[in-house]
Design goal:
alpha+beta, six-stranded antiparallel beta sheet, homodimer, 404 residues, 12 helices, five-stranded mixed beta sheet
Chain lengths: 404, 404
């Protein structure tokens, strides 16, 4: 970690460290957010921000660096014992697929699976095909002591190692961990502030359970809490006492939420998007001369420039005026690059190289040379060079649909 | 500043400081951005990011803190001598108003005035009326040594000091400085990398000037460069030699751009927005009981939640279904809060307190109880409680126009 001193004196009292991860702020603020945002478990708190690690060997461009951006979600769920008390049983995973819309009888396993699949859907949604990703389930011996399951989502970077078959093995973009109630419990213990919630559904559900079921759930919750406390070094007697209190709380609708944590590196993701987008085409001109052109095939959602706007010719004031109107129409809604320099082919090529998914060209038909084409423009698509004729009045809606 | 060490050893070789401002990265990367983005002077580079200052007395909530977010624009312009060579003369400011669309004959004074007024327009555009702002022109003796003019834009915080008339004096949100060519020149000198640009317009314009004018501009540019170098401690002879080289460069279309820098604190601005939005109303119910309600009157552009979506009753499945459809219609485009708990009046009041500018209510008319109102909703406005009837098919466009 990076160490520094806060205040004028460099004394041990004033030592501070740059945070090596962003997640802890969410746990520290959990009760505050819960109480002010009118949410009920299950719900999540997401955050994006800088983290700093004093890496000895930063490497692979922005893959491993000392200052980086993290994005994390702490998704808080009911402990399985509470789910069972409310719904009668905890649903078991039936396949490896996305489990669909969340249900009240989901325990940590299905929530974990849900978030793994949601996160992969997110990556697919910004242009990383599933074939470029690896879903790696950590083995029991690899798991952090508090984790019940962790799935790493890897991207096959060009600099990744290869396995014995020659396949890229991938590097971690994100980890999706089922962290039990470890984090909130630790904060509660060391800050001396209760981190539990009251769940009216649980209280009402518990009262309706047969005595046998109540005893069973009480025992299991007690055992889980005791296990956590003992693992953390609390002495047997104190652990039993605390676990008894916790299980008695469950009866009244109280528990410490469990957490599913998808945690991703933003810089890594950006690097993955660039690697995935990079492609080259070889084009041969009329004279037989070949040229290699670069196209960055970013998904429209993540392309830094969404549209290039171009008058066919820059020395025709009517074309320029119309092109500027189109630019001003789009600009409040998206990043637009206005370009009037050089041949239209060169201008398209420049936007291809910058990864701009759409080019809008204003030509003489826009001005009404063919009356039926008045106030239409050419919409040119980066990846296949396809050109459509689009009404200016429909352009904004059409592009917004593609980039949102 | 905050001091730390990079790498495993805490030696003087490994000392690093957390950046106390974000601007320098823009200057260091100036040539890189210029060469890859196909921009010509005048153009700007904007940046937002964290900065850190080891303040001895952080105070006034988030007004002065040790870690803060800055947003800055370095807007690069031609030196006045280049403008004069190209346009024949440099336009003089004629009033204190916004000078309108940029013109090629603007020198640093009009560009500075332009950015001061643009920045005030920005603050007005997110809901801070001009009456809450103070435009403070720094006096000659207050200016930093490199600055030709600096305007501070202040906001009248409730904790600001008052002048002898009892008026709030305001605290700085932003400074807009005309920094001459100081920054790029310093980077050029200490990094040993040229930071000048080549300007084809200047080269072409210069060639057409009468000899007398050329000599006059050469001399003035020479004097300005020499003054800068001497001030920076360069010896007279070396300064003369360097200034001669620089002025000879001007003849060929080369110069170091000057800069106008609007630099603002994001946390301060957020605090200003909250202070400005906070208002209370006293409401008296039918029984004569008074209650104070808080309304956060955020401009729709900056309100954290844009719309509350509410079925009139939560136990009517048709209302709930329709309300969820409306929520799903809006949610890809804006932050929406779905609320079905409590009376509709209480739900409105909760959104008022969170600063949500619009509430959308789905009632029996939405379902067609009055056939002419089928698929319309109530749109309720936070600040005056006004209620309009709006078609669901027109809702998204209407709200997007208000929040963009």
């Amino acid at each position: 970690m990076f160490k520094t001193y806060v205040g004028p004196v460099e004394s041990e009292d004033n030592v501070a460290y740059l945070r090596p991860e962003t997640a802890q702020a969410i746990f520290a603020q959990f009760k505050n957010v819960l109480e002010t945002s009118r949410q009920k478990v299950p719900f999540g708190i997401a955050q994006i921000g800088k983290a700093f690690r004093n890496e000895v060997t930063p490497r692979n461009f922005t893959f491993r660096s000392r200052e980086f951006e993290q994005m994390e979600l702490e998704f808080f769920i009911k402990p399985d014992e509470a789910v069972e008390a409310i719904s009668g049983s905890v649903a078991a995973p039936t396949s490896k697929e996305h489990p669909g819309e969340p249900q009240t009888d989901w325990g940590w396993q299905l929530w974990h699976q849900y978030w793994v699949e949601e996160r992969i859907k997110f990556y697919e949604g910004i242009g990383l095909p599933r074939t470029t990703l690896v879903e790696y389930w950590q083995k029991a011996e690899e798991l952090a002591h508090y984790a019940r399951a962790t799935v790493d989502i890897l991207f096959k970077f060009p600099f990744s190692k290869r396995d014995e078959k020659g396949e890229l093995m991938g590097e971690e973009l994100e980890g999706v961990a089922a962290r039990s109630d470890f984090d909130l419990s630790q904060h509660a213990r060391f800050a001396g502030k209760p981190m539990g919630v009251f769940d009216e559904e649980l209280r009402a559900g518990w009262a309706k359970l047969p005595k046998e079921k109540q005893d069973d759930l009480w025992r299991r919750y007690y055992e889980n809490r005791k296990k956590y406390l003992t693992k953390m070094g609390v002495e047997a007697e104190a652990a039993s006492k605390q676990a008894t209190e916790d299980a008695n709380g469950l009866v009244k609708g109280q528990y410490v939420p469990h957490v599913i944590e998808p945690s991703a590196g933003v810089d890594r993701l950006t690097l993955a998007l660039i690697c995935n987008a990079y492609s080259e085409v070889i084009e041969t001109d009329a004279k037989g001369k070949s040229e290699t052109r670069v196209i960055l095939k970013f998904h429209p959602r993540v392309a830094p420039i969404k549209a290039g706007v171009m008058p066919l010719l820059k020395n025709k004031p009517e074309l320029v005026k119309k092109a500027r109107e189109v630019r001003d129409l789009l600009r409040p809604w998206m990043n637009v690059f206005y370009d009037d320099a050089g041949s239209i082919g060169r201008r398209y090529a420049r936007q291809d190289e910058a990864g701009t998914p759409f080019c809008v060209t204003i030509d003489f038909d826009t001005l009404g040379e063919k009356p039926e084409l008045l106030d239409t423009v050419t919409l040119r698509h980066r990846d296949d060079g396809r050109q459509d004729r689009v009404k200016i009045s429909e352009l904004l809606t059409l592009l917004l649909e593609k980039i949102r």
